[in-house]
Amino acid sequence: MLKVLIVDDMDIIRRELKRLKIWGEKTGFILSAEATNGQAALEVLKNTSVDLVITDIKMPKVDGLELLKKIVENHLCPCVVLLSDYTDFTYARQGLVLGAFDYMTKPVDKEEVLSLLKRVKTFIAEKNIQQDRLRNLEQNLVEQVEIFFPKADAHQMIELIEEGNIRCLEVAMRMIDITGANLGYNLLKVESVLKNVLNETSKILFQHKKWLTQFTERDFFEDISFAECKDLNEMKAVFNSRIEEICVLINLLQCGQRGTHIVSQVSECVLESPDEDLSLKTIAEKLFLNKTYISETFKQRAGIPLVEYLTRVKMEKAKKLLADGELKTYEVGNKLGYKDVEYFSKIFKKYVGVPPIEFRQNYKAYYKNYTKPKFFGG
Hints:
Elements: E1 2-7, H1 11-19, E2 29-35, H2 38-47, E3 52-56, H3 64-74, E4 80-84, H4 89-98, E5 102-105, H5 110-146, H6 151-163, H7 168-182, H8 187-208, H9 232-253, H10 261-272, H11 280-287, H12 291-302, H13 306-324, H14 329-335, H15 341-352, H16 356-368
Parallel strand pairs: 1-2, 1-3, 3-4, 4-5
Helix pairs in contact: 2-3, 3-4, 5-8, 6-7, 6-8, 6-9, 7-9, 13-15, 13-16
């Protein structure tokens, strides 16, 4: 049975639809849920799988068109039908442009609903067939390219990224060259390999270095696109740019952990909670070690004073918080232990090169033109 969600703020409309003697074996559709507005419907769709949403257009909180956009953007349901009054045709037509399957007028007519459900059933069946074909094609492609894929290079590349070692780019270039040659420079097949490598890289990195989510998003690799690449060299440039970015970030934050166990301990302690009240004293208490020993050993092995490292970590965290856009500048400063917003802005500008407000406004352009910091033993 195909499941239907009815969304309308008027009880009488929902009752009219439910009372129609069309649900069940006769059509293959059942009414599985209902909601009084788009916001409530989204909550239902987060927890329940449905095949068809029948929704009113004009509703409080989240209206039908906004609900339709959310459903289409997040693939929450394969088919949406709008309910409209005779005066809502402009909105109904807009809904069709946004991706609605069709619309029905109020009050609902039994024959019209029957005809609609018949077409919806055919549409969903055809869509499922297309998706099955696509999955089969993708699986076949993966099986074909894996035969020619140098897995050892991919594993070595990931290990070097985890170390923050820039030599990962050399391994990545070799891997792409070998893959390209083995696949006859078929860019579609090479793209499939590279995306699989990026997925595996992301999975391993965020599993082994859980602190990374404090400084970047889990979907770091998901938005990478090779669509505009005309040859293998352009694909290498796109791939290596993203690999270099994460490698630089890791190297910067874990402070070239090829020093000693102390460097690793301190880095891990700081990176797991960058917004706590971090100081030499609190770190020493957490690690049950002498303050002087930590301070001197860290500076000697990592190459920078601990206080400078703490500032670096907090500023990298500040960049993410500012880019997220959910907190105001003074709130970001407070969260990181800077009670004086002017002092926080001064420290941030010294580290990044621009004030926090300017960074928030232009952070995409900033990252594009960002001068990479020096490597610690890369």
